[in-house]
Amino acid sequence: MQCAITACRVYARNGPFGSLGHRVILRKSDLGPRVVGMSIWKQLYAMVWLAFLQIVIAIVTIPGFKTYLIYGHVVLGLVILGVAHFNNAQMKKTEAPSRLKRIVKATAVLATIQPIFGIALLVNIMLGLSVLLAEVIAFFHLIIALAIITQASSVATAYDMWEEKEIH
Question: Is residue 60 located within the same domain as residue 128?
């Protein structure tokens, strides 16, 4: 069991790679279920950059590429939805502070709401239908996107600091 505790400390300090870049393999029998792959802090920061890219795609206008940008926005939105729920599931398995877990859960809920507004806007843009209150829907879609990137960045930084024992 001492070996398992040591491996756990190495993992917490260096992520899935040891200090020299060697992969640290944690056995399920010793430590319970673990994800061997991208560490949680990397997943959390990936969420920030995906949300940033999503916002950039939404505001960029390139003549002749409008349809491609819209489809890219939809696909990236679905990726963000999946990453948000995956981060939520992974954070539940950690001993991170409850506040961080609540923020990740709220981010996943916001990411789940986004497709509802997105579908209404997609119908309005692609099919040329006049969706009632399209401007209001677009406003809320934007506000929720900004809330997602804000919450994702705050929890990524806080989790990284907590994992490195920079905060108590």
Answer: yes
Q: Please indicate, yes or no, whether residues 25 and 84 belong to a single structural domain of this protein.
A: no
Instruction: Please write the tens of the pLDDT for every residue from 90-115.
Output: 999 999 999 999 999 999 999 999 99
Report the C-alpha gap between 80 and 113 in whole angstroms. 12
Residue-level pLDDT at 37: 61
By C-alpha distance, which of 165, 162, 80, 150 is closest to 114?
80
Cα–Cα distance, 48 to 34 (Å, whole number): 23
Quick one: 126 and 45 in the same domain? yes
Token duo for residue 103:
């923020």
The predicted-structure confidence for 30-48, as pLDDT tens digits, reads as follows 333 344 467 888 999 999 9
**Number of domains comprising the chain:** 2
Domain range enclosing 24: 1-37
Q: Is the residue at 168 inside a domain?
A: no
CB 163 within 8 A of CB 12: yes
* C-alpha span between 56 and 68 (Å, rounded): 14
Identify the CA nearest to 124 among candidates 111, 113, 141, 137.
137
In the structure, what pLDDT confidence band is assigned to residue 147 with cuts at 50, 70 and 90?
very high
Interatomic CA distance for residues 101 and 92, integer angstroms:
7
